[in-house]
Specification:
Strand order of the largest sheet of chain A: 1-4-5-8
Oligomer: heterotetramer
Mean pLDDT of chain A: 91
Number of strands of chain A: 11
Largest sheet of chain A: 4 strands, mixed
CATH superfamily of the largest domain in chain A: Butyryl-CoA Dehydrogenase, subunit A, domain 3
Number of domains of chain A: 3
Strand order of the largest sheet of chain C: 1-4-5-8
Strand content of chain A: 5-15%
CATH class of the largest domain in chain A: Mainly Alpha
Distance between the termini of chain C: 39 Å
CATH class of the largest domain in chain C: Mainly Alpha
CATH architecture of the largest domain in chain A: Up-down Bundle
Largest sheet of chain C: 4 strands, mixed
Order of helices and strands of chain C: HHHHHHHEEEEEEEEHEEHHHH
Mean pLDDT of chain C: 95
Structural class of chain A: alpha+beta
Helix content of chain C: 40-55%
Number of helices of chain A: 12
CATH superfamily of the largest domain in chain C: Butyryl-CoA Dehydrogenase, subunit A, domain 3
Order of helices and strands of chain A: HHHHHHEEEEEEEEHHEEHHEHH
Low-confidence stretches of chain C: none
Number of domains of chain C: 3
Number of strands of chain C: 10
Number of helices of chain C: 12
Shape of chain A: globular
Largest interface: A-C, 56 and 55 residues
CATH architecture of the largest domain in chain C: Up-down Bundle
Radius of gyration of chain C: 21 Å
Amino acid sequence: MDLSLSPDERAFQTEVSDWLRHNLDPALADKVRRGQRLTKADMEGWHRTLNGRGWLAPHWPKEYGGTGWSPIQRHIFEEECCRAYAPRVVPFGLSMLAPVLIKYGSEAQKKTWLPRILDGSDWWCQGYSEPGAGSDLASLKMRAVREGDHYILNGQKTWTTLGQYANMIFCLVRTSNEGKPQQGISFLMVDMTTPGVEVRPILLLEGTHEVNDVFFTDVRVPVENLVGEENKGWTYAKYLLTYERTNIAGIGFSMVALEELKQIAADQHRAGRPLAQDPLFAARMARAEIALNNARIANLHILWNAAQGAGNDSGNGASVGVESSMLKIKGTEIRQQIDALKRQALGAYAAPFQPEAFEPGYNGPTLGPDYAAPVARQYFNNRKISIFGGSNEIQKNIISKMMLGL
Amino acid sequence: MDLSLSPDERAFQTEVSDWLRHNLDPALADKVRRGQRLTKADMEGWHRTLNGRGWLAPHWPKEYGGTGWSPIQRHIFEEECCRAYAPRVVPFGLSMLAPVLIKYGSEAQKKTWLPRILDGSDWWCQGYSEPGAGSDLASLKMRAVREGDHYILNGQKTWTTLGQYANMIFCLVRTSNEGKPQQGISFLMVDMTTPGVEVRPILLLEGTHEVNDVFFTDVRVPVENLVGEENKGWTYAKYLLTYERTNIAGIGFSMVALEELKQIAADQHRAGRPLAQDPLFAARMARAEIALNNARIANLHILWNAAQGAGNDSGNGASVGVESSMLKIKGTEIRQQIDALKRQALGAYAAPFQPEAFEPGYNGPTLGPDYAAPVARQYFNNRKISIFGGSNEIQKNIISKMMLGL
Amino acid sequence: MLADTLTRFVAQDYPLDARLAAGAGVPGYAPEKWRALADLGVHGALFDPRDGGYGGAGFDLMVVFEAVGRGLIVEPLLASAVLAGGALAQAADPKTKSGQKEHLAGLVSGEKQATLAHFEANDGWDPTHIETTARKTDGGWVLNGKKSVVRAAESADFLICSARSSGVPGDKDGLSLFLLEMDGPKDGVTLQSSQTIDGGRVSDITLGDVTLPETALIGRAGQAWAPLQSVLGRGVMCLSAEAVGLMDVIRDMTLEYLRTRKQFGQPIGRFQALQHRMATLVLEIEQARAAVINAAAALSGDTTDGIATARALSAAKYTVAEVGTLVAEEAVQMHGGMGMTWEYPLGHYVKRLIMIGHEMGDGDYHLSRYIRLGEAT
Amino acid sequence: MLADTLTRFVAQDYPLDARLAAGAGVPGYAPEKWRALADLGVHGALFDPRDGGYGGAGFDLMVVFEAVGRGLIVEPLLASAVLAGGALAQAADPKTKSGQKEHLAGLVSGEKQATLAHFEANDGWDPTHIETTARKTDGGWVLNGKKSVVRAAESADFLICSARSSGVPGDKDGLSLFLLEMDGPKDGVTLQSSQTIDGGRVSDITLGDVTLPETALIGRAGQAWAPLQSVLGRGVMCLSAEAVGLMDVIRDMTLEYLRTRKQFGQPIGRFQALQHRMATLVLEIEQARAAVINAAAALSGDTTDGIATARALSAAKYTVAEVGTLVAEEAVQMHGGMGMTWEYPLGHYVKRLIMIGHEMGDGDYHLSRYIRLGEAT
């Protein structure tokens, strides 16, 4: 494999970074950089901007609105977005539901829902986990009983990220108790404005509200909202999860976090000397940097192999299976490692907790340097990334089974 | 708990170190310090010296030849022996079989075998593991069939340490296939000069011969050599293993190894500066030193608690159960950590392999500093300590079950 | 015994919700619980009999602060009794300045609350790297500088504040301690304050030409290093013991969760991968406890070997930083999503355990200090 | 393709027993296999076409040395072709010294075997810390000093030896390279030799007033740093790739063992604790491979950014040291007693993998170098 960019790829890189410079609102980028909370409008705005340029859904087939980019181009695009402090695109519709619809949905469903994802008409959220079904997702209990042209839903979903903003939710539901637990699961799309749907916030340990419980009481869902076949939802669910895992790996975000770490370590002092020059801390930073660079190359290597092997996969390219488990584990470990170093670098100034400083528009004083406020919060919040989207333990189970044959 | 020594304990410490100074042959200590191979005569000589002073079996009850020391005194004695580079006493008779005999043996067995252990008449070795029964010890297959006044033994034992020197072996044998595997095991003492016993060497990966296979073909063992009851051997085996684990933890040996490491790091140079002053290596050494000191205090804490609780345990004192699993895991991890640092400290001089330099009496030239020759070999050889005596994985299983109730 | 009393008090009279609410509010703790703790004798146990207490040895600190950790107690015992009180007890000259003795008595009884304003933004945990200056004038002293992230300063009746009356940052000589009354707004003293992520409040304190009378000086000018070093060592001891107390709670919660949470048809504690990781945690917590015992013994013993004591303290703080991070992160991971929520108690213990690494030196600092002190011998 | 050829050769014509016996004997490898490797074209693949080879780029080195690792090949390809051959190729001035060009051709064809005598006991892997001196005389040069742990020196037809013709240890300027013929006993050259724990032989080489003719100088006096740096970087590349090859074998052996070894009534690979540890190994090996790919790309690319290339090489060597130690120790542990025996092949791959950390810089050295080079930018 060749790691250096071709002239075409370099030109593409320039095109992306130029466009970002002109189209990403600096105030929005600043919020991202400073770890401030993004409003719903912020996220929707960036979604629209990308869609306006046709760059919202690089991983979709071209016929549905994808870009037709090579895996390497997509990689370049993601890295440039991260470097520019672009907000992360909300993935639930674009990167989770859409691939399932494209692969398993009916033509009618594709026609109805994919354009609405692109133009932002719908804000999707994910109804997978339940209180008793986390790692053991297949043990989910939420019932969907067929009554004429409708399913009647009763049960609870949890850990629903940004569910407070969503009008649509895709759910795994139990349509049968026959056979193995995996065999009676179906994949349903649910309008959250239907009577009987209730969203309740869950506060995370550092006090932020980003996940929710969603309760369903006699919720009526039209049967045309079933994706694929009844009781085959587990297959679609697993397909979706590979996308989610790759997403969570977040190498680009770690690259940005590493740059922030370096800036903090240059600014913070230890007994009069920059922390970056402390031998133990310098070694910790270098270890993280090397690990991140290794992971980046390993990911490229996987993409490159996938691209070689996926010649006629109609532009969808680089669909990776069990490798995504490896990406997810390593990517989240590195991100958490960098977050921990940022926290450590702050010394005593990691302690002040100033939630007002995370709010949009806050420009008041903070205790300590201006980069300090979000750091400890991010550290605690990002403990989630090795848990959500299939915990790293589940990923290791997958690797053992699928790749190692153990 | 009080960590400082009482005046009496300090006096005891002086008594031990004085005695060692006068009674431990400096040439023998030098061999130990230099990692040279000890001959059978070396080991037997030190055994006799200790027995002459009455200090061979501190952990035995006084009536059988123990010293009546407190756990703290025993700890002091062990540390002083390590500091003086005394050879490790061969444990199979003294520390493994003897506690079993004392607790479960008949009076006749105690009278016959315990004095012979003390005076060195018998050299014992251990017949526990089999090729198919390592971690899963209870699956052992070696058969002992009762015929009149004898058991007839057929099968194989393996990993028998120093079996090449032994005249006696204690074995776990299968006397029944009824019930759970643990229920049909018996504990037998076998004279290795009996026809049908054959010892074959196993070379370890660094080329040393210290373990063996032992084959049994129609070996006749008198029934009076059965310890305790037939088919109850598993109970005795587990009791023995707690002793073995504590033994393997080897905090005292790690203390000596740490001193050696410090000397190597002071002597070795990196670009003209002592390695001990390299910030990363200094941090590695300090981490090991702190870990070792913590483990030492943790062990004392356990001994102290055991001593508090074991008021009338007739001097046997400080019998520890599941705690010995914790001691073993941490003790072996630290020892391996120190061995790895010694290896690392040598740089290129870890590579030369000069087995002749390990032999007694070798005084010829070696490549590199005189402390270099055994270091890499010790590192590879000591990978065994987290495997033998019940692997650290098995210890974690024990902790999970016995202590955590998982 | 006091530890049992304290634990019972927390369980019966000071539920977790109340402790969290107090820690998130102003002044960052519950004054009535502060008084209740004093009535139980907790404050007194942290002081030597010669200072009016009935404890104060290394093992006393250990026992109390393990209970503080187990109880996630947000009241500023460390700041007020151990640090400010300790500084007064060790630095003040009782013969000449009886007023300071009364202040000390107020801290021993718990009637007063004080704090030690010592660390600064650029000191990097080095307690000699003090840039705040104290200039001698005719009638007293003028202080200039900035103290960082001082715990419980807003609510303090007075501050014990370090400043440099001579020398340069890094010098041991030339450090002095001053008593600043905080009975009302004080010219030149500005507090910028915030709650903390682990409960309680902190302030940056700016000192701009703060004039103090001669009587504000504690002990002799320029001679504060010895008492400061001792007091900070005791603080490190307390934080280390608190960490072990927190780990004990986190371990028990995690064990309970492993036994009861079911996935794949069985308690998750039946999964060997988790069993082995849990065994490691239990093992490491005992190592951390041993480090704290060792430090307590060093503090309690004869203090002829100051370097050995200092090394034992740094070894303890380093150990609880390493083990604490492992325990905190593994406990959250093994709890899965549940461990991430505000509602479930685990996260609050975890936050405090992690943030102990951000008080009085992190693991790297104490490891480096341990090495440096070893080279000096 | 060459890698496949090499792998097939090892499997068919050079069984493990023979490789081990050759590595433990004198001269530490099998001369007839050395020739066979040359016939396969292995040597040529390590040289640039302009030097008579047909490869020599970063990815060529990577491919060959991954196969060397997989095959546990003891023949001194690194010492002879990459280091000595590379030094000759890069430092020699073909116009003036045609004799040296013939020596180079001998290394490319494999008819000759040489080695690079460069590192010294006190250099701590710093390749500029050379204490051996070269003094100019009327007719040539006099060398004094000692070279440490030089691989395959006893059997070498000639040595490429570095020495300082000016400056002090640590200077980049002033290093020179010399060619020492070893066609018989040489006045002042003493070898003390030993086998190694991982196969092959090494020597300490003492140089006592060794007189050399003017023609022994390779290239220009005092100007050897640039070629040395390049050649040592290529050596680091080869060792890193060899480590990845070894890890691939160790992984496969361990997987096979986990699948077949039964305890408690099932293959031990069914135990989740081992599954998760194995998954970690597989994951980390891919990270190590990525580091090596990155280094190969840096070496293969335009060399305008020497610092970036050097950092990529150090990152690779650091990574294989960390991952290699983990893989080696975990593989032995998961094999249990079996992994500890001489008879079972695992241990021999493990020994080589660990000992790669003792050639041309350990993990700490390369991590520190990576940091230092980063500060320079």
